[in-house]
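Record type: monomer structure entry
Structure origin: computed from sequence
Chain ID: A
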Amino acid sequence: DFMLEEILNTLKKYQGLPLQNDAPNKLPNKLPNKLPNKLPNKLKEPYPDLTDTTCEILAYIIENPYATATEIGNSTGISDRTARKHIALLRTLGIIRRHGSNKAGHWELTEDI
């Protein structure tokens, strides 16, 4: 009860006063820069259900066909497991395919973008 009363008194004391933002920002920016969506609208027309994240992954694959799922995840700010799920969706839709081995292969677009 004592602590709640002290909190209430402090809130009443500063009620109506503007907030002061004196605290330094010590939090690092942990969100990576998002890739701009560089895909033309003609790809979104046949596949309107593609999310922005899936489109960002596709844009990254277009720029870096030798990228791994870990690199793709790091660049878009998601886990490599989530990146693999988006890649699987793109493969299921027939937009991309893997040419060569998992280690030394690269991604190819099956659509003309």
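Annotation 1: The mean pLDDT is 80.
Annotation 2: The chain is about 45% helix and 5% strand.
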